[in-house]
Design brief:
single chain; 2 domains; six-stranded mixed sheet; 16 strands; 23% strand
Length: 459
């Protein structure tokens, strides 16, 4: 069993990367020259790092890469490490298909030069292109880096994808192209995926090597997001962008250890489609959109007026969804919802599921009462079912209230009514039908007016 102490020993012997760069260790006897890559026919692993990593993250990155080299990479493979902003090689090494290289000590001695080059790179305090202004911390230029990889090395053989570990910010920023910045809540529209390279840095042109398959593992540090919506939109865009280049975003995490583990094991991750992410064919204009909600967490439900009196039907049928109810009477109503017939139903006694969560009802809140369910994982709105139960209290004529649904950044409104003038404590069955009502999701979202979606329509 391999042991972590050997890695720590190597790292301590080589010194912390926060020391001066010129303290890199001398080449060990027998260290592998860089040109040994030419004769290696094994698989490749590529790492692209930002030259602008925060000093608090550098030691963790250094130790993780040392461990990758001396323990985690398999035999008969090669590692290529690059500056993913300035598009320069940092180091390369090849691990022969020999049993002696199962030893971390052997690898530490053999690859001391490469480990020292990584340390020197991380030790430098590179000036940000934008000066002291924030925004370039951890910056990398993924489109240009992908082009560089396609030119710098041959396309990956066969149908297998090339594992690529990115260490840096997921927010694109380049002082030479400020119009494509993802700072301050901005993200690219799907129109960039259809644009040419002349129109957008995220665009594509015939013959630009865009079909190179990459299996991308992205590790970033800190909270770089303006909001959860911003994070979702940027993640979705990069997944679709990498897919457009013939690859897949396999991991996207603020946890370096998670990304490193997935990278070294070549874990496939989830495809964009499995997350419900598909390019919107109606978005043809390449523009930067700001992910700032016009409503806050519960304002979408508690606000008096809807942003649009009659929003159009959704342009697609899969995505994250919120559904909520509100009412005026001093009674207890409960919301139930499931993303499909065979999935778990969310309600007050089952507040968490793989798809989302139920927000606890506020029976003692002042003014209008409300509760909602959020499906954080993308759902097919044609399959979602939701019901309201009159749980407790008395209401002559039966309770009425309002339904609001947030889907694809639009808010839709409708109403509900229950026949019974009193609650039934949540009991169900044919005899309890008057205490329940089904929310007409199709009607509220005007799905009958939406364009046909093909054979995947809900049955």
């Amino acid at each position: 069993m391999k042991v972590l102490t050997s890695i720590l020993c190597v790292a301590l012997c080589l010194g912390s990367i926060t020391r001066a760069a010129d303290s890199a260790p001398p080449a060990a006897a027998g260290a592998a020259p860089k040109d040994t890559l030419a004769g290696n026919t094994g698989g490749a692993f590529v790492v692209g790092m930002s030259p602008f990593l925060d000093s608090t993250a550098k030691d963790a990155v250094y130790r993780s890469l040392v461990r990758l080299i001396v323990e985690d990479l398999p035999l008969n493979t090669r590692l290529e490490v690059y500056d993913a902003f300035n598009l320069k090689s940092i180091t390369r090494l090849s691990i022969p298909n020999a049993k002696v290289f199962n030893s971390p000590k052997t690898r530490a001695n053999q690859f001391a030069v490469s480990i020292g080059e990584i340390k020197q790179f991380l030790a430098r305090d590179n000036a940000r292109p934008g000066g002291q202004k924030p925004g370039f911390d951890g910056a990398i230029r993924l489109p240009q880096f992908c082009d560089f990889l396609a030119q710098d090395r041959p396309l990956h053989d066969g149908g297998a994808k090339l594992p690529l570990l990115l260490i840096g910010s997921p927010l694109y920023q380049d002082s030479r192209e400020p119009g494509f910045s993802m700072l301050e809540g901005y993200f690219p529209s799907d129109g960039h995926l259809l644009a040419s390279r002349e129109q957008s840095v995220f665009g594509f042109s015939p013959g630009d090597g865009s079909a190179q398959g990459l299996l991308v593992y992205w590790a970033y540090f800190g909270d770089t997001w303006m909001s959860d919506l911003h994070r979702e939109k940027v993640t979705r865009f990069w997944a679709l962008y990498i897919q457009r280049r013939g690859g897949q975003l396999a991991s996207f995490s603020a946890d370096l250890a998670t990304a490193m583990g997935a990278f070294s094991s070549e874990a496939p991750g989830r495809s964009a489609a499995s997350n419900g992410w598909v390019a919107d064919p109606l978005q043809t204009k390449p523009e930067m959109i700001r992910a700032s909600r016009s409503v806050n967490l519960v304002d979408w439900l508690t606000g008096n007026a809807l942003p649009e009196s009659r929003p159009p039907p959704p342009s697609r049928m899969v995505g994250p969804l919120k559904i909520g109810i509100r009412w005026k009477e001093d009674i207890d109503l409960d919301l139930y919802a499931a993303p499909r017939r065979d999935a778990e139903t969310l309600f007050f006694q089952h507040p968490r599921s793989p798809e989302g969560y139920y927000f606890k009802d506020h029976r003692s809140s002042p003014g209008r009462e409300y509760e909602f369910i959020e499906f954080e994982s993308p759902v097919d709105v044609r399959k979602v079912q939701a019901f309201v139960n009159f749980y407790a209290g008395s209401c002559p004529g039966g309770p009425t209230g309002e339904v609001r649904i947030e889907f694809l950044d639009r808010i839709y409104g409708g109403t509900f009514a229950i026949e019974s003038p009193q609650g039934n404590q949540g009991r169900s069955g044919p005899a309890q039908a008057v205490f329940w009502t089904q929310i007409p999701i199709h009607e509220i979202l005007r799905l009958n007016e939406a364009a046909p979606q093909g054979p995947s329509a809900a049955r």
